[in-house]
C-alpha cells in the first residue's frame, strides 16, 4: 500500500460527476472526522484539508476531532519527561497531562491554521464536558477522562453557521479541571450524540487488513465477532478504532470508516466512490430483508396492487409472481411484509434489473426503499454483475437522488428487455448504477 502523499497512482480518481451524484444524499448530514495527531504531522494533511473543503462545499457539516499521540510522545522525548500513556487510554499522571495540554494546543492551532488557509470557517469551543474515569481494575486512571456531557446546542449552532468545530482531546470537567480523553472515544461520542451519518477515522497507517486481506466493507457483526475471538488479528493501533467503530454503529451511527489518510484523495474516494479505499464498517440495516418464499406470493401480489393501480408498477399476475418467487426479496417488520423488490437477471450482459420496488404507504419515507435497493445492488455485485438497471414511471428521482442511479436510455437495456419495453408502451425512464 502506498504511504507517500505524492503518489497518486494507488488512489482512484473520483471525478466531479461521480461526486455530484452523491450531493443530494449527504447535504446537511454531519460527518465526524477523527484525525490522528500523526496524520496532522504528515505531508498529506494539506490534501486532507482540501478534501474537507470539498465536503463543506457540498454542504456536509464537518466536525474535526484531532489526536495528539505523536506530538505528545515527541514533547516527552524533547523534554526527557516520562509519560504514563500517549493515547489517553490508560492512566494520565500530572506530568503527562501537562504535556498533553501543550500538545493539544499546538495541534489544534495547526489544524485551525490549515482550515483557515483553505478558506474554511472553524472554531474551538468548550462544548465537551469531561468526567474522570476513576479507578479501573484497581488502578487510579488519574486525569484520564471520558465524555460527561456535550453542549449539543453549541455544536449545532456552529454547524448550522457553516463552521467546523475543532475538538481537542482535552476537556474540562464540572470544576474546570482539564482531563485527557482518547480522541477516538471523543469522536465516537460526538458522532452518536450529534446523529452523524458517518464517523471517519483518518490514520497515518495502512488500512485494516485481516490475514493479509484488505477489508473494504465489513458488517459490524463480523468486526465485533473478530474483535471478540481474535483481537490480535487487528493491528494494535487500529484496534481502538475498530472497537469504537463497533460501538458507534451499535449506538445508531450508520457507517464508520477507517482510512489511511496519507493516501492522496483518500477521504473523497472513500466517501464518493462505490468501492472506497479504506474500511467501511456498516450496520446490519438489512436484517429485515430476506429472500421470498412461496408462501409470500399472495402478500406480494396484494401489496403491489396499489402500485399497479397508480401505474407506478406494471401488472404481474399472481402466477407470474409465484413462478418467479425466488427472484423476490421482501422486507419484513414484526412478521408483516412491508416491501418487496424483484431481481431479474440478464446473465449474458451481467445485468440485473430491479423491478416491482414497492413499499407499503405507511412505511414509506423511512429508508426502507433505499435499503431494499442497496441490498439488491449488493446482491447483484455478489453475483458478478457489472450494472443494475431500474425502469420506473414515477420514482426516477428516488433512484437518481436517493440511490445514486444515473438516467440512461433505452439503449442501456439488454436486447430482450428493449423489445418488451417498446411493446408495453409504458415509456418508463431507464436508470442504471454501475457496480
Ligand atoms: C419509491 C419507493 C420505493 C421509495 O421507498 P421509500 O421507502 O418510501 O423511500 P426511502 O424512505 O428509502 O427514501 C426516502 C426518500 O426518497 C424520496 N422519494 C420516495 N419516493 C419518491 C418518488 N416517487 N419520487 C421521488 N422521490 C421519492 C423521498 O422524497 C425521500 O427523499 P429525502 O431522503 O431526500 O427526503 C416507495 O415510495 C414506493 O413504493 N412508491 C410506489 C411504488 C414505486 O413507484 N416504485 C418504484 C417502481 S420501480
Question: What's this, in brief?
Answer:
The protein has about 425 residues and is α/β, with parallel strands linked by helices. The protein has two domains: about 15-285, Carbamate kinase; about 285-435, Gcn5-related N-acetyltransferase (GNAT) (Aminopeptidase). It has helices at about 15-20, 25, 35-40, 45-55, 70-80, 95-115, 150-160, 185-195, 220-230, 235-250, 265-270, 295-310, 320-325, 370-380, 395-400, 415-425, and strands at about 30-35, 60-65, 120-125, 130, 135, 140, 145-150, 165, 170, 180, 200-205, 210, 215, 215-220, 255-260, 280, 290, 330-335, 335-345, 350-360, 385-390, 405, 430-435.
Report on the structure:
- With 435 residues, this protein is an alpha/beta fold.
- The protein has 2 domains: 16-283, Acetylglutamate kinase-like (Carbamate kinase); 287-434, 3-Layer(aba) Sandwich (Aminopeptidase).
- Helix content is 38%, strand content 24%.
- It has helices at 16-20, 23-26, 37-40, 45-57, 69-79, 94-117, 152-160, 183-193, 220-229, 236-250, 266-272, 297-309, 318-323, 368-382, 396-402, 415-424, and strands at 30-35, 61-66, 122-124, 128-132, 135-136, 139-140, 145-150, 164-167, 170-172, 178-180, 198-203, 209-210, 213-214, 217-219, 255-260, 279-282, 289-291, 328-333, 336-346, 351-359, 387-392, 406-407, 429-434.
- The strands form 6 sheets. It has an 8-stranded mixed β-sheet with strand order 3-8-2-1-11-15-16-14, sandwiched between helices. It has a 7-stranded mixed β-sheet with strand order 17-18-19-20-21-23-22. Strands 4-7 form a two-stranded antiparallel ribbon.
- A hairpin with a 2-residue loop joins β18 (328-333) and β19.
- α5 (69-79) crosses α6, α8 runs parallel beside α10 and α9 (220-229) packs across α10.
- The model is unreliable at 1-11 (pLDDT under 50).
